[in-house]
Amino acid sequence: MRVMAQMAMVMNLDKCIGCHTCSVTCKQAWTNRSGTEYVWFNNVETRPGQGYPRRYEDQEKWKGGWTLDKKGRLTLKSGSRMKRLLNIFANPDLPTVSDYYDPWSYDYDTLLSAPQMDTTPVARPKSLITGEDTKVTWGANWDDSLGSGPEQVGKDPLLAKLSEQVKLEFEETFMFYLPRICEHCLNPSCAASCPSGAIYKRAEDGIVLVDQDKCRGWRQCVTGCPYKKIYFNHKTGKAEKCTFCYPRVEVGIPTVCSETCVGRLRYIGVMLYDADKVLEAASVTDDKDLYPAQLGVFLNPHDPRVIAEAERAGISPEWIAAAQDSPVYKLIVDYQIALPLHPEYRTMPMVWYVPPLSPVVDTLTQTGHDGENHDNLFGAIDALRIPLEYLAELFTAGEIGPVRASLQRLAGMRSFMRSINLGQEPDLSIPDAVGLEPEEIEAMYRLLAIAKYEHRYVIPSGATSKAHELDSLATGCSLDTDGGPGMTAFDYMAEKFHLTDTNGAAAPEGKSHRINLLNWDGKSTAGLVPTSANGNGAAGNGNGANGNGHHLPETAAEAVESEPTGATR
User: How would CATH label the architecture of 57-90+182-241?
Assistant: First the structure.
């Protein structure tokens, strides 16, 4: 047994409203600069839909993830080392920019400087790559809420596995949102694909990162990642990806996407796993066995033997305690309601999802039935085979059983807790039906429905060096300078579209300063809202989290001392 710790995330899809706040704040923190115009480390997709980039799940085309060779050994789907070496200068299995989308802005200078006229001036769309006029034909969330209609939704690769009749019925009755970030896999195919060895998995927390000094821009990792969550910066010539906001996590603060999630649907915690079992679990013959195989990799943090091995491996008591209190472990292992995204890619993903029950409830309610009654819900879950089949293609490699079990537990929780909240005698047959104790159902309800900030995010602060402090990142790291992996989008936009005055100063926007989301604590509004004329308006005096002092929490306890107010969580 070789115990290792892994930061993991679970998203409750029942609570996602598709507002894209997570995507916007992530882009503001990490990719609002030249070279990353098309890049979204976090994006929210509508299902059914093509996803981002378009049809990224079609691995017959893109060759992402792992597969088994004729001898049953794990090998990259993109081919042998020799084949990848031969394609190193001309990789045929790469998405084009149009598969993502051609990024654009608008010629706002025409609006700002237009003289008085009888007609309304028009800000034409401009390519953020070439600066020339462009035509808007696709976007990162173009088919949001089925906005592009049946013609585009029908191109969903998962729907292609179902019959034509299923496509029509499914499209008319079912829709949900799916936020996606890098999976920070236990068996990352991106790292195995990289000829330069630039992609590595951190031993202390399992976060997968790209070493910008080692990266040579071969883009084999883009092909190797089946989730297409590695992007090529066309200005720096380097690969970039989601960092799980490691500067924040290292001091006990959740990721930006989690911090700003309006629906409070994200959970972050520590998972302990046996590294010696990863290869065996990823190599099981039947794709449908991959989900239970990965469950078998995880270790019980309350087991004295696991604790002893973890201590022997150098895992600190703080991390072991965090693993024991991890909301992610409870949702994945204890309650078994969270499922991995596309386990058939064999990368052992560590961002899991609680499947949505709401479409089933809505369908029942529309037919005049009680959508919260467990008898109705259990029957509907079993009868509505179309959503079960689709969800199974997403989360369990087509195996319907775990999806049905997860939805039944969610349905049982709704019915059981409704009786309690209405002061009625709960039906004790419900816990037996879903394989949980009444106390477990109540604990699951508290975690999914009313959990406080400190219960959703159980993040131990690491023993970090001063090089990783957020103050340093906020005031002088490569995210602020040209040529590093980061450059502010406004500087680039100002250069492209003349959004500056004659002295080169940015056009006034009524804001005291730009806010840096990397060290934002979720409380201060300085820089987020306009100030009054005397500078003492809604944004305050700038002495908060992003003011003159750039306040850095000393401990994880200080970071989650109380539940912040406002709509940002």
Answer: 2-Layer Sandwich (3.30)
